């Protein structure tokens, strides 16, 4: 076998372990009822394998932990801030950095500064917090992702791409003045962790430049996006993930960032922007909502850990093992004919709940049902990404009915082993075999904002 054909394996070994409780079926049933069939309301202690999210659940390296001891906890001008700022400039290439406590802090600042009431913000599929901040600032979100993204079976390699035709039509329809920026997410979480190609980013840059529209990237998983470009896009196989990331960012004007994903930490984020004026406003506004502009809600040690995490995140071997583990789980499910979103995404495997439960209408919450049944079976916690997550239209008050009705098995970085993936696949396959028995759920409590976090359900 050629050296380059061999299996991936983690480029690290384990130094510290955290015991997990081995839970029972009776315990799952009790916990599930108490949590109102919402996996967000389960206690972590009641979970065996936690695939709720890859957000803030990363394991840090010894080098990052060593950095935690180097925290400069000065109120102003911490050396860790300058290290973080330089690292972001070097790896992502943006000029100005405003630190925030996490991604939605950056989304809040960006939306408040750039959006005027009545504006329109196009994006390659919505993300929950991102769209809400745009709406709270007075904008309407318009989805301009390619149609393939809405079809779980379509195998196109770049299902995160922006449909440039939809984008042009929107510019003609509402006028460029009403579009402060395009929100370009790479990868696209709600589409199944699907990437955007370099060619698409470049073409979007050319189109928006003609109209004076900015591109603000959601860079939360842009390193995973860069890895997919290396693997799938002609001309990039010999470039490093690090080089590809920087080129991709060069077609955009700035980014919001949830540091809790790619950058391998448990908390943190930032807003990056090349424009001087927007930067000055953001640096001013951050002191109102987050903290001084040299910490933005993070401790000095958090900023140091994130700076070091960025350096580790772009290593090719890290990315190969990271995405390799997600693909390992996904391929086991494909072999067992379990319906999942294809191609397999960067941070998660997405189960197609509509295909599991054709007997349920979308109002009976198929994905919420599947997430609950999966937890009941084996204590594996997943996340609903369907109608509950999509929420309601703020104007009409009606449910959004997303085409995708998914359950996300999200893999934390450097946390679980291949054996955990095996156990997870066995449980998913069992739940799939019992699919005819599912009767759906009824929502009995619905909060106003981001309802999926706190909603409660009962079995029908
Ligand atoms: C997840 C997390 C966070 C996120 C993201 C993208 C593409 C921004 C953010 C916000 C956590 C989450 C958030 C809302 C609903 C469910 C889960 N995604 N952009 O699990 O960043 O959380 O740091 O404020 O994926 O996917 P932050």
Keywords:
460 residues; alpha/beta; Aspartate Aminotransferase, domain 1; Aspartate Aminotransferase, domain 2; five-stranded mixed beta sheet; three-stranded antiparallel beta sheet; 40% helix
SSE topology:
Layout: H1 25-34, E1 49-50, H2 62-68, H3 79-92, E2 96-100, H4 103-114, E3 120-123, H5 128-136, E4 140-143, H6 164-174, E5 181-185, H7 198-211, E6 214-218, H8 222-232, H9 241-250, E7 254-258, E8 269-273, H10 276-289, H11 300-313, H12 316-335, E9 348-352, H13 353-356, H14 366-378, E10 380-381, E11 383-385, H15 387-390, E12 406-410, H16 418-433, E13 441-445, E14 456-459
Parallel strand pairs: 1-10, 3-4, 5-6, 6-7
Antiparallel strand pairs: 2-8, 7-8, 9-12, 11-12, 13-14
Helix pairs in contact: 1-14, 2-11, 3-11, 4-5, 4-10, 8-9, 12-16, 14-16
Bound molecules: ligand P70.
Summarize the structure.
With 460 residues, the chain is α/β, with parallel strands linked by helices.
Number of domains: 2
Mean pLDDT: 97
CATH architecture call of the largest domain: 3-Layer(aba) Sandwich
Rg (C-alpha, Å): 21 Å
From the N-terminal CA to the C-terminal CA, the straight-line distance is: 54 Å
Can you describe this structure?
There is one protein chain. By secondary structure, this protein is an alpha/beta fold. Helices cover 40% and strands 13% of the residues. The chain has helices at residues 25-34, 62-68, 79-92, 103-114, 128-136, 164-174, 198-211, 222-232, 241-250, 276-289, 300-313, 316-335, 353-356, 366-378, 387-390, 418-433; strands at 49-50, 96-100, 120-123, 140-143, 181-185, 214-218, 254-258, 269-273, 348-352, 380-381, 383-385, 406-410, 441-445, 456-459. The chain is globular and about 60 Å long. The structure holds ligand P70. Ligand P70 is lined by residues 53, 55, 102-104, 127-130, 185, 189, 218, 220, 258, 260, 269.
């Amino acid at each position: 076998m050629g050296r380059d054909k061999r299996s991936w394996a983690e480029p690290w070994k384990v130094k510290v372990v955290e015991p997990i409780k081995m839970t029972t079926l009776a315990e799952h049933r009790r916990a599930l009822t108490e949590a109102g069939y919402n996996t967000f309301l389960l206690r972590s202690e009641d979970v065996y394998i936690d695939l709720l999210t890859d957000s803030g659940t990363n394991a840090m390296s010894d080098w990052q932990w060593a950095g935690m001891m180097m925290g400069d906890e000065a109120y102003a001008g911490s050396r860790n801030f300058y290290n973080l700022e330089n690292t972001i400039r070097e790896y992502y290439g943006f000029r100005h950095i405003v630190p925030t406590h996490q991604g939605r802090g950056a989304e809040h600042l960006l939306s408040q500064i750039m959006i005027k009431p009545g504006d329109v913000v196009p994006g390659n599929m919505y993300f929950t917090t991102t769209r809400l901040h745009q709406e709270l600032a007075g904008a309407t979100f318009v989805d301009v992702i390619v149609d393939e993204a809405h079809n779980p079976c379509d195998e196109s390699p770049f299902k995160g791409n922006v449909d440039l035709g939809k984008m042009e039509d929107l510019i003609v329809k509402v006028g460029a003045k009403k579009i402060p920026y395009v929100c370009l997410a790479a990868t696209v979480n709600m589409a199944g962790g699907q990437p955007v190609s370099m060619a698409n980013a470049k073409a979007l840059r050319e189109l928006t430049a003609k109209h004076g529209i900015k591109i603000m990237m959601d860079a939360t998983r842009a390193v995973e996006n860069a890895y997919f470009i290396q693997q799938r896009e002609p001309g990039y196989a010999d470039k490093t993930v690090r080089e590809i990331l920087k080129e991709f960012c060069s077609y955009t004007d700035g980014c919001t960032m949830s540091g809790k994903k790619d950058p391998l930490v448990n908390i943190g984020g930032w807003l990056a922007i090349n424009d001087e004026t927007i930067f000055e406003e953001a640096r001013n506004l951050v002191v109102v909502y987050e903290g001084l502009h040299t910490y933005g809600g993070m401790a000095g040690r958090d900023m140091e850990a994130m700076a070091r995490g960025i350096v580790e995140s772009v290593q090719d071997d890290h990315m190969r093992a990271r995405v390799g583990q997600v693909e390992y789980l996904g391929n086991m499910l494909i072999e067992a004919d379990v319906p999942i979103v294809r191609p397999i995404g960067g941070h998660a495997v997405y189960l197609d709940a509509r295909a599991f439960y054709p007997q349920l209408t979308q109002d009976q919450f198929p994905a919420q049902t599947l997430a609950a049944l999966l937890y009941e079976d084996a204590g594996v916690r997943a996340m609903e990404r369907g109608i509950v997550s999509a929420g309601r239209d703020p104007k009409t008050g009606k449910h959004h009915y997303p085409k995708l009705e998914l359950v996300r098995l999200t893999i934390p970085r450097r946390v679980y082993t291949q054996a955990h993936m095996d156990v997870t696949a066995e449980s998913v396959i069992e739940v799939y075999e019992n699919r005819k028995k599912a009767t759906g759920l009824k929502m009995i409590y619905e909060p106003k904002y981001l309802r999926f976090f706190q909603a409660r359900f009962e079995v029908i």
